[in-house]
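User: Can you write out an input/output pair for a complex, sequences first and structure second?

Assistant: Here is one pair. Inputs:
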Amino acid sequence: MHPEIQALEQTQLRKVETNFRAGDTIKVWVRIEESSGKTRLQAFQGDVIRRNGGSCRETITVRKTSYGVGVERIFPLHSPNIEKIEVVRRGHVRRARLYYLRELSGKAARIREASRDRYAKLDARSTTQASEKQKSRSRRKKRRSTKAANSPS
Amino acid sequence: MRCGLLGKKLGMTHVFGDGGVLIPVTVIKAGPCPILQIKDEARDGYRALQLGFDDMPVRVANKPELGKYERLGITPKRFVREFRVDSVEEYEEGETLSVELFYEGDKIKITGRSKGRGFSGAMKRHGFAGKGSSHGTHKVHRKVGSIGMASWPSRVFRGKRMPGHYGETRVTTKNLKVVKIMPEQNLLLIKGAVPGARGSYLIVSK
């Protein structure tokens, strides 16, 4: 991507809690404008089944079952309409996209809660997305450079 | 007619507008464009401004071009185009035009060179429907189908839409909305898509 677009996207980033993964249960507080012109907050609580895209374009898909009907909402993570995001519960899942939940219902659609170790590990991760991304990038770079040093050619 | 600007497509992203609406935008590096030459009624028979964009090394420029650039004291430009204008009096050669020519909310027109698609079939090139993928269809899924009648007229009409070279032509998209101008970075944010590949040159006009 062009560096100037990257810089532009940086300005669009908002400081929201992004320390969650697919499988976690979160509560998203959305700002809603009523017809009277007043704004209020509305919460949407459900399981994160996907995090998609990066930077200011990142979206999350949150799924919940409402009166027996599956409801999914896609939120642009950096939308100014998102007041805050709370992590309610951390889940233990083995994939990044939990589409299989759509076919399951009732007891089968539950997600196992994460172990205490996992909680500690995830809670320790940085909360702002930008620094998180940078860290993973530098880690990747390090790995690549050590690989290059070790190879005989 | 008012003067436009030359630019380069950087790519797409999106920004949040009023009330948190998501707006898909194309980011364009537009200007600063020096006026290289002013064409007037008396000498050239028409009124236009010749603008340049994107520096190029002196060794690449040819000598006649170089003479002009040296006279104006600016680095040679890769992309040079003319804009017809109603009057040239208020302009001066060597003067620089920037994105401040435009305002947020303006409807503009962008001309570029569309992405080349090589030799393409009629479905991609002309939006033909093709044939079914099953129900006994055999080896004709994406073919053109009939191209005419029989012993009359015994020929194919001229202009019949068929497979062939597609893309890499001059394309103009009208009524594009300026979402934001960023004069410090010389950037224009335009709502929606714009012709051409990333890094290709564009003509932005009102």
